[in-house]
Amino acid sequence: MTKAPMLTARVLIPFAVATIIWGSTWIVIRGQLGVVPPNWSVCYRFLVGAVAITIHAIATGAPLKLDRREQCFAALLGFTQFFLNFNFVYQAEGLITSGLVAVVFALLIVPNAIFGSIFLKQPLTGRFLFGSMIALVGVGLLILQEARGDDASSHASIVGVGLTLLGVLSASAANVLQGTNAARAMPMAGMLAWGMVWGAAINAGVGLATTGAPVIELTPTYLGGVLYLGVMASAVAFTCYFSVIRAIGPARAAYSSVITPVLAMLLSTLFEHYHWTLLAGSGAVVTLVGLVIALRSRKPVLKSA
Q1: Is 273 left (phi over 0), alpha (psi -120 to 50) or beta?
Q2: Is the pTM of this model over 0.70?
Q3: Which of 21, 56, 122, 294 has the fewest C-beta atoms lying within 10 Å of its C-beta?
Q4: Under 8 Å CB-to-CB from 302, ≥6 apart: which residues?
Q5: How large is the angle between the packed helices 154-178 and 237-248, nearest 10 degrees?
Q6: Are 263 and 256 in contact (CB under 8 A)?
């Protein structure tokens, strides 16, 4: 496959859509915590997401049927992305601030780059590595800023960051799955819809075993959050994000998680009166500089089997 430039509309538009949507989700997830156990909140989110994708697929004629091998792939995706990843994130947000979870999750670029190189044989260019190192310095400044503002105890902070890192590894496994030729051969709508069904089913099973019967909070905040997270942050954003992974690989696509906390901070400035500090501003600027350098590199030849 010939090398292709990264900064094209086919890549940038879905990249921007997924990143902008996910920049708003960290605050919304906080409204899902408390009354409803995390397993059930995640279950409801992906049931809504699966329904939304199915409705769109039927309306547009996109294929939804998967064969047995493809169903196994969708089940693995559901387990890693829609069960492990999101349960770790929801549990972490119950212990530490959503801002700290968001900036720690920006480290997704590290395992994505490593696993993509090992399992997908995708070489990383010098420009990409240089830009990534700059971006990670910015992420480090943002983590320091958010850690300073976190009121959690030292034990809760350690557990919360640990859970977030487990979520990062789970998401990375799912991201690398999307970079394989097997994933590219599958219809996006069918894979995502069934992956979310599998994820919701696993969450429901674990929820029944650990916390008991389904619980739901009948408030506008909670129900509105489920709809937003299910339709926009799941059905729309994952369709966009996985299409980016298929086009440019998991390492470069992970820059969505790098810029997401910066967008979250900007939204918090508008709606929550977030006050920028020199440390936060410096981290955001350095992160964006690294982003521009890395994404101006060229896509390597894909050699995945």
Answers
A1: left
A2: yes
A3: 56
A4: 1, 120, 122, 179, 249
A5: 60
A6: no
